[in-house]
Write a structure and sequence with these properties.
single chain; alpha+beta; Nonspecific Lipid-transfer Protein, Chain A; 5-stranded mixed sheet; 5 helices; 5 strands
């Protein structure tokens, strides 16, 4: 996999590749920040290339599936997630339109985004 950092147009990365390969490296690299932020984050992506994962910021770990109890839950279409990660999705507009649905404190959405923000 060839991932470009801060040069040209970002490449699309499938949600599965992101959560199984890229995200664990991000969480590990930002372990101290994640520990300060804390919380568990359940993410459910629907459609082609969809899946479900739980991110535990306290331990900087990620697991398959959404845990029964999470502090913040996010669901959306996998295609919208890919566009969001590439900076091609109006997140606020998509949330207002119901394309992005979440339960939990909106500040946790910001925490999640600050840790997982794509380089660019």
């Amino acid at each position: 996999m060839n991932m470009r950092l801060k040069t040209g147009e970002p490449e699309s990365v499938s949600p599965s590749t992101f959560f199984n390969d890229v995200c664990p490296k991000i969480l590990s690299a930002q372990k101290e920040i994640c520990a300060k932020i804390g919380g568990t984050y359940g993410i459910q992506l629907f459609g082609d290339k969809g899946g479900a994962w739980t991110l535990d910021f306290a331990t900087a770990k990620i697991g398959a599936g959404v845990a029964p109890k999470v502090d913040f839950y996010l669901e959306m279409q996998a295609a919208d997630f890919e566009n969001m990660m590439m900076g091609k999705l109006d997140v606020i507009g998509s949330a207002k339109d119901g394309k992005i649905r979440f339960e939990g404190n909106a500040n946790m959405f910001n925490n999640l985004a600050s840790v997982l923000r794509p380089a660019g």
